[in-house]
Amino acid sequence: MSELVAELENHTARYVEAVNAGDFETVEKFYTADAVAVWEPGKPLSGDERRKYQREFLEAGPRMAARPRQVFVTGRTALMIVDWTIDIPGDDGTTEHLEGVGVDVLTLGEDGVWRYAIDDPYGQAS
Question: What are the Cα distances from residue 119, in Å, to 5, 62, 93, 94, 110?
């Protein structure tokens, strides 16, 4: 089981790298085709809405840090509780600082890759 936990912790690190690079195509590969994301509490997005929101967010040049707090795995499903921060540069030279405790559900694909099925960065507040 500890190998799976390490693999999922590494998954988080690779996701952060892709976000910090602003690489939409790579970030998108971290999600299932029908993934749901709740980047604003109470406003779940999926499909093209989710992709549009994520593309625009990455274009703003966010800098992210994340650390898994807890990882639970059963079969091909994982639940991750993740502490994260994001700093977003503003057009006026200021930086918006965001932080939270995310609740993420991942599924293991037939190709052996973990992907987000549910991404709720504000899980503790939703």
Answer: 18, 17, 29, 27, 20
Cβ burial of 120 (10 Å; 0-12, 13-18, 19+) is buried
Q: What backbone phi and psi angles, to 5 degrees, belong to 22? A: 70, 25
Q: Are 88 and 4 in contact (CB under 8 A)?
A: no
Q: Which domains, and CATH codes, for the chain?
A: 2-120 (3.10.450.50)
Considering just the CA atoms, what is the radius of gyration of the chain in Å? 14
Q: Using CA atoms, how far apart are residues 44 and 63, in angstroms rounded to an integer? A: 23
Q: Mapping DSSP to helix (H, G, I), strand (E, B) and coil, where does residue 26 land? A: helix
Supply 15's token pair: 């996701």
- What tens-digit pLDDT sequence spans the chain (126 residues)? 588 888 888 999 999 999 999 999 999 999 999 999 998 888 999 999 999 999 999 999 999 999 999 999 999 999 999 999 999 998 888 999 999 999 999 999 999 999 999 999 988 664
